[in-house]
Amino acid sequence: MIRVAVCGALGKMGKEVCAAVEKCNETELVAKIDIAGNDIYKTIEEAQKSVRIDVLVDFTQPASIFENAKYCLNNEIKPVIGTTGLKDDEIAFLKNLSKEKGLGCLIAPNFSTGAVLMMKFAKLAAKYFDNAEIIELHHNQKKDAPSGTSIKTALMMSEENEDFTKGNCPEKETIQGARGGISYKNIHVHSVRMPGFVASQEVLFGSDGQILKIRHDSIDRKCYMGGVMLAIKHIAEHNEFIYGLENIL
Question: Which CATH architecture has domain 113-218?
Answer without folding.
Answer: 2-Layer Sandwich (3.30)
